């Protein structure tokens, strides 16, 4: 149940003629074997996925028709979080590109590319995961804030803790008035 729920949360819709898209991955020797699947409307002649390492090379992978409107395929890639763009090609040879995304955004397990464990936050807190390192920094910041507030309270209380008010700095206290005898 938990695995099915996490899979549903990482399905991404790419816009245009593209519907939901997902990836699944496994290690194959020293490479990453990725299975792509994307929904495409308008019955294209072909669908390809462009996998790019920003600033480096691009690989184009042809996808096969799995069922009406669903295309998929396998690719062996280097172990990294590639940028992914799907392209649907019509009968005239014209291509329509999807919005760019990454393998991680499509649902690839971060452990497959050497990233830290990622723990999803609650549904009401957004859909961005927090790594273990981010959670440690968050708890550290909360502890530092608590210490700072405690020091501020001690400073603000000053000498008032003994029950008497301390004089304001820079002003001399008035001498106590002598009691007058009743006349």
List keywords for this structure.
183 residues, alpha+beta, Immunoglobulin-like, nine-stranded antiparallel beta sheet, 2 helices, 11 strands, rod-shaped
Describe the overall structure.
- It is a single chain.
- The chain is of the alpha+beta class.
- The chain has 2 domains: about 1-115, Sandwich (Immunoglobulin-like); about 115-160.
- It has helices at about 1-10, 130-155, and strands at about 10-15, 20-30, 30-40, 45-50, 60-65, 70-75, 85-90, 95, 100, 120, 130.
- The strands form 2 sheets. Strands 1, 2, 3, 4, 5, 6, 7, 8 and 9 form a 9-stranded antiparallel sheet that branches. A two-stranded antiparallel sheet has the order 10-11.
- Mean pLDDT is about 75; it is low at about 1-10.
Secondary-structure map:
Blueprint: H1 2-9, E1 12-15, E2 18-28, E3 31-40, E4 46-52, E5 58-67, E6 70-77, E7 83-89, E8 95-97, E9 101-102, E10 118-119, E11 130-131, H2 132-157
Antiparallel strand pairs: 1-2, 2-3, 3-6, 4-5, 4-7, 5-6, 7-8, 7-9, 10-11
Number of strands: 11
Count of helical regions: 2
The structure class reads alpha+beta
Biggest sheet descriptor:
9 strands, antiparallel
Q: Return the average pLDDT rounded to an integer.
A: 76
* CATH fold descriptor of the largest domain: Immunoglobulin-like
Rg over C-alpha atoms, rounded to the nearest angstrom: 31 Å
CATH homologous superfamily classification of the largest domain: Immunoglobulins
First CA to last CA: what distance? 92 Å
Helix amount: 10-25%
Q: What is the ordering of alpha helices and beta strands? A: HEEEEEEEEEEEH
The best one-word shape is: rod-shaped
Low-confidence runs (pLDDT<50, min 5 residues)? 1-11
How many discrete structural domains? 2
Instruction: Output the CATH class name of the largest domain.
Output: Mainly Beta
Percent of sequence in beta strands:
35-45%
> What is the second-level CATH architecture of the largest domain?
Sandwich
